[in-house]
Specification:
Layout (H helix, E strand, L loop, with lengths): L33 H41 L8 E5 L6 H8 L12 H9 L4 E8 L4 E8 L2 E6 L14 E4 L4 E3 L5 H4 L3 E3 L15 H15 L8 E8 L2 E6 L3 E6 L3 H18 L3 E5 L8 E3 L10 H10 L1
Parallel strand pairs: 1-3, 4-7, 7-8, 10-11
Antiparallel strand pairs: 2-3, 4-5, 5-6, 8-9, 9-10, 11-12
Length: about 325
């Protein structure tokens, strides 16, 4: 014990630190003895036995479930593929579409992956989209929207020759190439688009070339006029990035610009109206020029009865 300071009236504080003397006893709260060790071993064996029983029970339940699934569902003839109904229209036949799916009579409709089957169908360049439905009674329904061709695409650089079976290539309204395996009468009647500088020819993918889409728009507008006794469109030639040349039956060639088709078509309609009324045989017509449209004729045109402005413009065009 430390002594109190001199002159201090307070008693000296005792140290709070306890020292262990020779008589100090340490209590062991986890003593080991043969009896305690035996109890612990018994408890461990009990826990191991319960764990093993739970594992065995889980394995039995999983096994029974797998056998039930396999026998009652996977091998059940009710869910096996029996009939495939294909609703489609286009160049691909129903047999070709079914063959593209890779399905067989051993296919289980319950476990079949519809997404994978649809992807296989849509990988065909002739297919635009597909919808698949199953009824779990052995019937699979395929609603396939095919790309409907509207013209032939010709490009010697890309080895696109039309119309030839196996080598010819069609194109739909979106500018996607559609391979042609068999040439039909309907396809033979379609116009041709000639584009020597086509950048790529990937079946099923729309063309990135702006001229191709301009030619398709022009073709649609010209074909809608064929009912009005206009000449029949046979070929649209793309000679350069800024012009389109439409070839009609009767040796008529009309040059359009790729932009602003409507005003050009209005002038085209006016010239064709006069050509029908006056029996003109138009050879060439250039509609890129918005003033004094150049026109040439196979024969001298009859301009009788035209007013002065029309006569002057027609005479300067000859």
């Amino acid at each position: 014990m430390s002594a109190a300071k001199n002159g201090s009236k307070k008693p000296a504080k005792r140290s709070s630190h306890k020292r262990k003397g020779p008589g100090t006893h340490v209590i062991d709260y986890q003593p080991e003895s043969p009896v305690i060790r035996e109890h612990e071993a018994v408890e461990r064996r009990r826990r191991g036995f319960r764990t093993a029983m739970w594992l065995i029970t889980a394995m039995i339940v999983i096994g029974i479930g797998w056998v039930t699934w396999h026998e009652a569902l996977e091998k059940n003839s009710q869910f096996m593929l029996k009939t495939v109904e294909v609703n489609t229209e286009g160049t691909l036949t129903r047999q070709q579409i079914v063959a593209a799916t890779g399905l067989t009579e051993a296919t289980n409709l319950l476990t079949m992956n519809l997404r994978e089957v649809r992807a296989k169908i849509e990988r065909q360049p002739q297919v635009k989209s597909a919808v698949i439905q199953r009824d779990y009674h052995g019937k699979l329904t395929l609603d396939v929207v095919q790309r409907l061709p509207v013209a032939w695409m010709e490009c010697p650089k890309q080895k696109l020759l039309a119309p030839l079976s196996g080598k010819g290539c069609l194109i739909d309204a979106e500018g996607a190439l559609v391979p042609c395996n068999v040439v039909t009468r309907e396809y033979l009647a379609m116009p041709r688009i000639q584009f020597p500088d086509l950048s790529e020819a990937i079946p099923g993918r729309p063309s990135p070339d702006m001229q191709v889409h301009a030619a398709l728009r022009l073709m649609e507008k010209l074909q809608s006029r064929s009912e009005d006794a206009h000449p029949t469109l046979e070929v649209i030639e793309i000679p350069n990035p800024w012009s389109l040349v439409a070839h009609f039956n009767g040796d008529t060639k009309v040059t359009f610009g790729v932009d602003d088709l409507d005003p050009q078509l209005a002038r085209f309609d006016r010239v064709m109206y006069e050509a029908r009324a006056r029996k003109w045989r138009v050879a060439t017509l250039n509609l890129i020029a918005s003033i004094n449209t150049p026109v040439t004729f196979h024969e001298t045109p009859d301009v009788t009865g035209l007013n002065l402005a029309d006569t002057a413009s027609t005479s300067s065009a000859r």
